[in-house]
Amino acid sequence: MTRQSFNEGWSYRPKVSAFQEVAGAGTETWTPVVLPHDALLSGTRRPDVPGGETTGFFPGGVFEYRTQFPVAAAERGNRIELEFDGVYRDAMVYVNGSLAGQRAFGYSRFAIRIDPYLRFGEDNEVRVHCRAHLDSRWYSGAGIYRDVTLVSKGPAHLANGSVRITTPDVDADRAVVEISVQVRNSTQETRTLTVSAAVADAEGSDLGRDRSPVTLLPGRTETVRHRVYVAQPSLWSVESPNLHTARIGLYDGDQLLDEESVRFGIRTLQLDPHRGLRINGREVTLRGACIHHDNGPLGAATIGRAEERRVEILKAAGFNAIRSAHHPMSSALLDACDRLGMLVMDEAFDMWTSSKSDFDYSFDFPEWWERDVEAMVAKDFNHPSVLFYSIGNEIPEAGSGTGAAWGRRLAEKVRSLDSTRFVTNGINGFVAVLDVVLPAMRRQRQSAEGGVNTMMAQMGAMLNHISSSELVTERTAESFAVLDVAGMNYADGRYELDRELFPNRVIVGTETFPSRIAEGWALVRANSHVLGEFTWTGWDYLGEAGVGVIRYADEVEPGSVSIAHRFPALTAWTGDIDITGRRRPISYYREIVFGLRSDPYLAVHRPENRHREVAIATPWSWSDAVASWSWDGCDGTAMGVEVYSDAEEIELLLNGDVVGRERVGAKKAYQADFEVPYRAGELTAVAYTAGQESGRHTLASASGTLVLRAEADRADIRATTDDLAFVSITLTDEEGTVYPARDRDVTVQVAGPAVLQGLASADPMNTESFLGDRHRTFDGRALAVVRPTGTGDITVRVEAPDCASVTVTLHAR
Asked: What's an example of a GO molecular-function annotation for this chain (predicted)?
């Protein structure tokens, strides 16, 4: 048995048919790429792209990938599969010109058997066709954007991906590890073989073994089960993500025919409305972040290190759970959550039978949903980080009996495949009764321009009122009843209401507004039946452009109510973390609300916007404040200062002089507001509780020479297709204090066995490509992403006008 990465040796181009090629249309050159790869990222963003605000104004397209590879004659008789972790979208896989398989959904892992189409002892060609066109409400990317693996197994083998591991009985003294695997016999004779299973800890020490004979009739597949008993088990949790490895071997006598190795965790889950969620017997409150699948400057390309870095940063910011919105997450991201200790809600679909975009998955759902649910559960089953399967997000059908019937069908399908986790659904009460709300809105002459997000923003505080109404209570009762946990989008008004109406209902806030962090968290802490909340969003993302951008009166057309921003809007600008991985001020506010930070946090409004009239600030918006006291040419200008704190009072000092003292929470919970005439130096916030200092935070002004700095997240990287180096670029003074208002065009050159995979800033209004070697900083910062192509030393040189160049050295091994 062999299992090897199949990410290298590919090329791609815009797709043309054979007939078009005959007519001379196939002149586009094939561009070499290493997978994972996002074909859409190379497109030219234009203001006239249909539905451009949804995709960040990237145009759709149809693409084809190809690769050639030799297959040895000795492989004849083996079962050979190509395993795709995800292809967006409508993938058609051809081997030597013959269709070998297809997949409609863009987020499912799927395997295509290719040995019937191979020429053994010769070179073979694989082509993959795919597309993206008006089929998503966010930036989807396109192409083979996740890993590909080539799997070859002998005539008698362990079925690929069939290992299932559960830990049904765990206590302090021992854990029962149940391991099942499917064994396939594709020969024409009955065979009696042996299956072994061994469990090892993270250091490789043997913790337990079992063996079992299995008799296989010709062409039959049988399931073999083992129970291995592990003494004094090391349990998996957020704080201690202990992992184990199960090794399963298939033997004919002493001859090893096949083997599989699977990492898993030992842990228990319990759920009830009185003690909430318990992991290993301990109550856990979900501090959750919704995330989209793109990785900013990498587009949709799901490269392992980028997924790992994202989890590292989210966890450091105080989150302990992520919700994949609104599609199954990548295997690489699940692996990172397992290793680092991040809880997961994996989500199946954004739509069922009712479409949200012109050509979305709703056209394929009736035929494909069952296979795609099977694919999600198969991918997630052995990952201890996965606690919840979400069957949908803001499904309009959820407010009807037929929609509830679909929900029941989906939930029971999940349970038939995996009864060890909890099933939820992100139900938006407002969306569930749109058939009633829309006519009412029309009667009130409220525009529906901009889609459901615009309507929700218009409704403001009314959204909770609608979600808590008797109409929504009645219309969603059955849809909630089919679930283990009631997922609620923007409906914290139901938390206390449902404690009385539905005393057995357990709730999780599957989406919440950034503007209601404090209110929502107070409700979570006060109600044991509410497991926690997932904010929209933890990480900024491409598309849904400008949903969180504050828009001022001088840039909005009179009478406009749409929250969709015009070109060149690129990102939603609603994440705690920006697309380069930098924490925004809202992240520190949330950390304080969570009770994870005792020091206050200072943020200052951008002076250029200080006196502009706000025209649109959606519930997904945060203030435009940044953590800086470096503002050239602003002497004497009144600066708006926000201080986030859980203390009682904040005293503000400028260069040691008291400029004000305010009560925290006077206007907004966990916040004190000041107006301070700007003067360079040090601005310090001192927190007081019961008259005693409880923490402080200082912002210092940058001064003097402009210095260009570059720093890699790691100096040593692996020469594999799943590793990257992230190089942070900043414009500072000689002491390292950032100049946010002296942005420059930075140029990045990479020498050695590597390429510049992406270059970006966090600017949500941006016309620059991520694929070039030059990009303008935003608030004094940019990010370069370097991808190794071989082993050896790599030099990254960064230049900017008026600055000495800087060099970073990496080593790939």
From this structure: hydrolase activity
For 565, the 3-state DSSP assignment is coil
Contact between 645 and 670 under an 8 Å Cβ cutoff? The reply is yes
Amino acid making up residue 633: G
311 contact partners, CB below 8 Å, separation of at least 6 = 322, 333, 336, 337, 340, 342
Residue 275 corresponds to which tokens in the numbers above?
């003690």
The closest alpha carbon to 745, from 720, 780, 785, belongs to 780
What's 442's DSSP letter?
A: H
Give the 3-state secondary structure of 628-678. CCCCCCCCCCEEEEEEECCCCEEEEEECCEEEEEEECCCCECCEEEEEEEC
pLDDT digits (tens, 9 = 90+) for 646-681: 999 999 999 999 999 999 999 999 999 999 999 999
Q: Cα dihedral angle (621, 622, 625, 627), rounded to 10 degrees?
A: -130
22 and 100 fall within a common domain = yes
Interval 225-240: pLDDT, tens: 999 999 999 999 999 9
Tell me: do 34 and 110 sit in the same domain.
yes
The CATH number of the domain where 246 resides is what?
Answer: 2.60.40.10
pTM for this model (two decimals): 0.96
Quote the domain boundaries for residue 198. 158-264
Q: Is 88 left (phi over 0), alpha (psi -120 to 50) or beta?
A: beta
Q: Locate 114 and state its tokens.
A: 């290719």
Q: Which of 278, 310, 280, 316 is nearest to 292 (CA)?
A: 310
Residue listed under structure tokens 């099933």: 423
CATH number of the domain at 497, please. 3.20.20.80
Name the domain boundary from 540, 564, 581.
540
